[in-house]
Amino acid sequence: MEKMSEVDPTLEVFYEEKKRVRNPWVPVGAMLTAGVLTAGLISFRQGNSQLGQKLMRARVVVQGATVALMVGSAYYYGDNPWKKPS
Fold first, then answer.
1. Can you tell me the distance from the alpha carbon of 64 to that of 61, in angstroms, rounded to the nearest whole number?
2. Where in the cell is it found (predicted)?
3. Dist. CA 35–CA 30, nearest whole Å
């Protein structure tokens, strides 16, 4: 019989995730990227290719900023997936 104080090893990752502070700007950046992409596709469909091109370029910039936020927050909080646990 298992003791109540022992934590299931498969759930340890879940508990660590709950403790860690997440960057709220990453989901905002993802939503902004999706919004700019949608607006660009709509403008292409309506025949406004100049606006569509500008929006697609803006999407690349917003998407790059989101990826930079993800990498920066992982570096800041010390999440290195290549580091072996000690």
1. 5
2. Mitochondrion membrane
3. 9
